[in-house]
Specification:
188 residues, 6 helices, mainly alpha, 4 strands
């Protein structure tokens, strides 16, 4: 298994952009290897839907068969092709396939938070204006990245030790960038 899969081609970008496929990749990290039926049970989706998404991920090279875990020649067991997946920002289609869906997701969360009277304590939506030097911004970016990695490692370790039916897939989106010098949003 290679350490990092650099997501660059359009097929891989489309594959990783889908929330269900992201969930499948996450479950495979926890389980190590799994059949479509195992993933269907873990995720709570029909096995035929999971099978479709597995084929898309396999075609993109993001998962591979693990025949050593199969019960017989017809049994299809899957595992991740890499330990981690990195979307290269300069890849063609990355804005369309990855960035826009992530921003739509964030917008939906913001609208839902405003539409409900109670705020879930297991969610965070924060926008802060910061005045930083480039060095401070670099330090903050590293701290946030380290925090996310630490929690990802902790969650994975705990999920492997003791599966919990209350465990859910969470997604974090972090953006730190300078605003336009004219005070604009820099939005397209």
């Amino acid at each position: 298994m290679r350490e990092t899969f650099h997501v660059q081609d359009p097929a891989a970008l489309r594959a990783i952009a889908h929330p269900m496929r992201q969930r499948i990749l996450s479950e495979l990290v926890v389980l190590g290897h799994a059949r479509a039926a195992d993933l269907a049970q873990a995720i709570g989706e029909p096995a035929n839907s999971i099978s479709f998404h597995l084929r898309v991920l396999a075609k993109a090279g993001m998962i591979v068969e693990a025949p050593e875990h199969a019960r017989d020649r017809r049994d299809r067991v899957w595992t991740n092709a890499a330990e981690s997946y990195v979307v290269d920002p300069g890849s063609p289609g990355v804005v369309r396939e990855v960035v826009r869906p992530a921003l739509r997701w964030a917008e939906r969360l913001f609208v839902e938070a405003n539409d409900t009277s109670s705020h879930d304590k297991d969610r965070l939506f924060a926008i802060s204006a910061l005045v930083l030097t480039p060095q401070q911004a670099e330090e903050m970016a590293k701290e946030v990245t380290d925090l996310l990695e630490r929690w990802a490692d902790r969650a994975l370790t705990e999920a492997r030790k003791a599966p919990d039916p209350d465990r859910r897939a969470y997604q974090a989106l972090a953006v730190l960038a300078p605003r336009g010098s004219d005070g604009s949003d820099d939005t397209p």
